[in-house]
């Protein structure tokens, strides 16, 4: 049975990857600027953001990460443990920090010799107080969420369904790393945390469009090039 589910997932992944392969670099870049605006309208400029470096065809979150780092925000990028652990660690990043291929898979990572755990990210973010208004915020942008989240985790996905199920690339890194997130949040009662799956607008699918297993990550919010919205 599990083998059949995995084969169904792979079929869906192949279809989604084929669709992404039709997007030109210019279209990816155009959508990346729209995504930047959508995320900036939602995320507090002082928040800690755990982002990612997109693979070819993925929604380009880098324009947002550049903008967020250039204001008040803190940005971390995932780093894969060279031991083969599926628990991601997080390296601090700004536009002046070099990116380099990871040790295990060809994903770019920050050149950080001392990455932190998700627990450490949560503890640091819990110390933030984001109540002060932002004097530099453009009046053209809507107000961010209230109360604002101190920690925002942007999660890459091939697709999501409208019930919040996520179709990942198959590595299991985010499923494993975020499995204990609720426990971490409970340890810091003042911590506001959002997990946002990032997809192209055509990758928000109906429930049942792909198989969902118990260990698969669920999210309560998604971002496309048009908007950030609850699921």
SSE arrangement:
Elements: H1 2-21, H2 25-42, E1 48-50, H3 62-70, E2 74-79, E3 89-93, E4 99-101, E5 108-110, H4 118-126, E6 151-156, E7 159-161, E8 166-167, H5 173-177, H6 181-187, E9 193-198, E10 204-205, E11 221-223, E12 228-230
Parallel strand pairs: 1-2, 1-6, 6-9, 7-10, 9-11
Antiparallel strand pairs: 2-3, 4-5, 7-8, 11-12
Helix pairs in contact: 2-3
Characteristics of this structure?
231 residues, alpha/beta, 7-stranded mixed beta sheet, 3-stranded mixed beta sheet
Q: What do you see in this structure?
A:
There is one protein chain. The protein is built from six helices and twelve strands. Helix 2 crosses helix 3 (62-70). The chain starts with a helix and ends with a strand. It has one domain: 3-Layer(aba) Sandwich (Rossmann fold), CATH 3.40.50. With 231 residues, the protein is an alpha/beta fold. The longest helix has 20 residues, at 2-21. Strands 3-2-1-6-9-11-12 form a seven-stranded mixed beta sheet. Strands 8-7-10 form a three-stranded mixed beta sheet. Strand 11 (221-223) and strand 12 (228-230) form a beta hairpin.
């Amino acid at each position: 049975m599990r083998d059949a589910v995995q084969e169904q997932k792979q079929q869906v992944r192949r279809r989604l990857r084929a669709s992404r392969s039709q997007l030109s670099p210019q279209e990816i870049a155009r959508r990346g600027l729209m995504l930047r605006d959508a995320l900036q309208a939602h995320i507090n400029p002082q928040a800690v953001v755990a982002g990612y470096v997109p693979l070819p065809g993925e929604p380009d979150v880098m324009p947002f990460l550049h903008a967020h780092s250039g204001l008040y925000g803190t940005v971390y990028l995932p780093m894969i443990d060279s031991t083969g652990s599926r628990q991601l660690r997080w390296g601090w990043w700004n536009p002046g920090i070099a990116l380099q291929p990871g040790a295990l898979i060809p994903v770019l990572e920050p050149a950080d010799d001392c990455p932190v755990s998700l627990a450490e990210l949560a503890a640091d973010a819990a110390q933030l107080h984001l109540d002060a208004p932002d004097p530099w915020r453009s009046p053209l942008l809507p107000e961010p969420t209230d109360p604002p989240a101190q920690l925002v985790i942007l999660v890459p996905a091939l697709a999501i369904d409208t019930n919040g199920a996520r179709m990942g690339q198959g590595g299991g890194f985010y499923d494993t790393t975020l499995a204990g997130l609720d426990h971490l949040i409970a340890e810091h009662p003042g911590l506001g945390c959002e997990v946002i799956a990032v997809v192209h607008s055509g990758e928000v699918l109906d429930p049942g469009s792909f198989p969902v297993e118990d260990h698969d990550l669920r999210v309560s919010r998604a971002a496309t090039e048009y908007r950030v919205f609850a699921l």
